[in-house]
Amino acid sequence: MAFFIAFWDFLVLSAPYLLFGLIISGIINQVLSVGLVQRWLGRDSVSSIVKSSLAGVPLPLCSCSVIPTAVTLRKNGVGNGATSSFLISTPESGVDSIMLTYGLMGLPMAILRPIAAFISGFIAGVLNLAFNDFELKDLEEEKKCCHGGSKSKQSRIKEIFSFGFGKLLDDIAGWLLIGIVIGAALNVFLPDDIFSNLGMLSNRLIILLIGIPMYICASASTPIALSLMLKGLSPGCAILFLLIGPATNISNIAVLQKYIGIKGIVLNLIAISVVGLAFSFLIDMTMPDLFTSALKPIKEGHDHAHFSWWENVMAVLMLGLLLKGIYQENLKPLLKSR
Predict the structure, then answer these.
(1) pLDDT digits over 230-284, tens only?
(2) Can you say whether residue 108 is alpha, beta or left, with left for phi > 0 and alpha for psi between -120 and 50 degrees?
(3) 148 and 274 in contact (C-beta within 8 Å)?
């Protein structure tokens, strides 16, 4: 029973911010197309790396969906540096995950997370620009396309919702629900003193060893990080997990080495790890109380919280959308193949 209460608490806390984030993501998708980003980046340079890192921060692409976008950019002439920046800053952040971070972990983490994503993407891009001379053989010419002229206002609004609550949500639904389930389970079953016997270095080493190979999207990592913080994990270790988990995984590494080379993959891992660790130590040494105060209402109030009717309605809506996304993305293709 305690697990289901914790699960519902996480869902109610997440729903308003995530639903709002999905709408904003749909608007961004209307404004920023792959072609526009490609033309904006131009030739590989420090300027294009800055632009790529900036463009990646708000874009609502998770670890899996960022790959085809980055490959398209790379095959159309975007260099190793800008491609690497995009590959890192994009899955580490996103409007949907920023809003979810604000709802679950407070304003300080919601501000620091995209800043860290930008810096890690920028550092990776500069390292690749300076040291990675990998050349992709099968470059393609940019394809000019026509979208049928200007769209009506109704058409644009429809596309905003069909992307935010359709394609994007379908992509992240399974992992997001898994993240909420894991977060609730950790909150209920982990001992409260589990992290007290581990030192600063040990906690960070464990997160690096687990986070680099595992697949988890930015939104799904958020409830897990919250549960770990409620069990005593330091805020610095939590942000390390939020950066490392979404930005790297074994399947991405296997695919991307074809497009930016083995050296590019190594440089990206170094950038992500170094920036993540730097932010981790900086937060724990200078501002731990800031995050403690942000988590205080969750720690003290939600065991006996009485949510309003509209919060519960939004949670029901969110759960329904997640189940719809899982059906569309996972179950429907499986049923069709039989």
Answers:
(1) 888 889 999 999 999 888 877 678 778 888 999 999 999 999 999 999 999 999 9
(2) alpha
(3) no
b/e code 159-168 from CB counts within 10 Å (16+ = b): bbeebbbbbb
CA-closest candidate to residue 186, choices 151, 235, 229: 229
* Domain ranges across the chain: 2-139+153-336
Taking only the tens place, the pLDDT of each residue in 172-225 is: 888 888 888 988 888 888 877 777 677 778 889 888 888 888 777 888 888 988
Distance CA 336, CA 338 (A): 5
Indicate whether 143 pLDDT > 50: no
Query: How many angstroms separate the Cα of 246 from the Cα of each of 14, 150, 156, 239, 316?
Result: 18, 36, 30, 11, 27
Q: How far apart are CA 2 and CA 185, in angstroms?
A: 9
Does pTM top 0.85 for this prediction?
no
- 246 contacts 94 by C-beta, under 8 angstroms: no
Query: Could you give the 3-state DSSP secondary structure of residue 217?
Result: coil
Contact 96, 219 (CB under 8 A): yes
Q: How far apart are CA 49 and CA 55, in angstroms?
A: 10
What is the C-alpha to C-alpha distance for residues 316 and 308, in angstroms, rounded to an integer?
Answer: 13
Could you give the CA distance from residue 148 to residue 156 in angstroms, rounded to a whole number? 13
Asked if residues 86 and 120 have their Cβ atoms less than 8 Å apart, the reply is: no
CA pseudo-torsion sign 318, 10, 114, 175: negative
Which two three-digit tokens encode residue 241?
């997990």
